[in-house]
């Protein structure tokens, strides 16, 4: 079945077309969702259900002149996963606030953050801490370390790529 036929059947709310859609595009949606919610695999199914429902309910908004069907579906899945991630992060911060034992400075001592940052060299680790933990701008963090702002952007970009590759290899095991 080609995409045009599948899209038309989905617009007509043909449930058989939904099953075909899941067979053809399910792996793509799952991949996008798992990359976005990599830290929360328990939320993948909820995100998948939300993405499928959103595609089903909003198929009439697909515009082939703006994007391919595959990319549109992947974007819908990504936005659904991001929405769920935001809710989870908000819920976690509410739980932390309720505990009242945990304050912002305690978040840095989180073993997971320390473990990940320990993979970086000392200079990059300090840059990441200044920008992502202490909330300094790139310019402020660069000034604090006596490097240019452009160099700070490059170091963070390289560090992110390194951590992304490390994460992917870690989860392949």
Automatic annotation (TrEMBL):
Statement: the UniProt record of this protein carries the keyword Transcription: yes
One Gene Ontology term from the biological process aspect of the record: DNA-templated transcription initiation
Stretches assigned to the RNA polymerase sigma-70 region domain: 22-88
Pfam families from the UniProt entry: Sigma70_r2, Sigma70_r4_2
A single MF term (Gene Ontology): DNA binding
Record's keyword terms, sorted: DNA-binding, Sigma factor, Transcription, Transcription regulation
Residue ranges of domain RNA polymerase sigma factor 70 region 4 type in the record: 111-163
Family stated for the protein in its record: Belongs to the sigma-70 factor family. ECF subfamily.
NCBIfam families: sigma70-ECF (TIGR02937)
Protein name (database record): RNA polymerase sigma factor, sigma-70 family
Source organism of this protein record: Peptoniphilus harei ACS-146-V-Sch2b
Organism classification: Bacteria, Bacillati, Bacillota, Tissierellia, Tissierellales
């Amino acid at each position: 079945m080609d995409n045009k036929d599948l899209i038309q059947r989905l617009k007509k709310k043909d449930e058989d077309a939904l099953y075909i859609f899941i067979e053809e595009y399910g792996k793509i949606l799952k991949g996008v969702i798992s990359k976005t919610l990599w830290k929360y695999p328990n939320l993948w199914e909820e995100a998948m259900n939300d993405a499928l429902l959103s595609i089903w309910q909003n198929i009439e908004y697909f515009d082939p002149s703006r994007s391919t069907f595959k990319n549109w579906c992947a974007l819908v899945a990504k936005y659904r996963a991001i929405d769920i991630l935001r809710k989870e992060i908000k819920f976690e911060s509410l739980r932390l606030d309720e505990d009242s034992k945990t304050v912002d400075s305690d978040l840095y001592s989180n073993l997971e953050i320390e473990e990940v940052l320990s993979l970086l060299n000392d200079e990059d680790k300090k840059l990441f801490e200044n920008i992502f933990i202490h909330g300094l701008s790139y310019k402020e963090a660069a000034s604090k370390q006596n490097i240019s702002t452009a160099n700070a952007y490059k170091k963070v970009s390289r560090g992110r790529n390194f951590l992304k590759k490390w994460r992917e290899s870690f989860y392949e095991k």
